[in-house]
Amino acid sequence: MWPWEHLAVGYLLYSACSRWLWGRPPTTRGTVVVAFASLLPDLVDKPLAWVLAVLPGGRTLGHSLLVAMPLVAVAFAIGWAIDSYRGSIAFAVGHLSHLAGDVVYPLVVRGELRLGFLLWPVVPAEGGPERALPHVGELIVVFLEFLATPRGTLYLVADVLLLLAALSVWLFDGMPLLRGLFERSAPE
After folding, report:
1. Which helix (H) or strand (E) segment is 86 a member of?
2. What is the mean pLDDT of residues 27-50?
3. Are the beta carbons of 166 and 12 closer than 8 angstroms?
4. Which band of pLDDT confidence, cut at 50, 70 and 90, is reported for residue 38?
5. CA 167 to CA 175: how far, in whole Å?
6. pLDDT at residue 142, as a whole number
7. Which of 19, 36, 20, 25 minimizes the C-alpha distance to 170?
8. Counting runs of H as helices and runs of E as strands, what totals does the chain give?
């Protein structure tokens, strides 16, 4: 999935959780946490694989359930220690939605079910290490070629609808994050 898709899915799921669990929209802090967590696997893996070449691929350490589950457990332990689970749930929703999205994306785009990365390093990474700029260029070319197909057009429509849904829900929620910035910068 592309970063904006991870953000949109993570926010939509967290907004639904926030309303279901607490009966109100996400807070600014929860929005920041879910945004960070929904990008975290790529923020870990892509630089370590594509730039520093210390990981064998762009979906390894940060994408592994063997790392994600202890991280989520630590987030909940912190929530328990400070008697506040909103951030813990935001982290869990963001991080786990990223992993789910990376399973769904190749299934939708290429009809391939890929689950092995979820158990890295028990299941070895596919392919080899890629260098950042050439690999990103290849991804963009493949994506643009896909968009030129009928299935790609359908995907683009679905993607725009996803982004519009996330924007609509964010506006309905009172624009958390922006609201928090304006509240802090308003003169007293």
Report:
1. helix 86-110
2. 95
3. yes
4. very high
5. 9
6. 86
7. 25
8. 7, 0
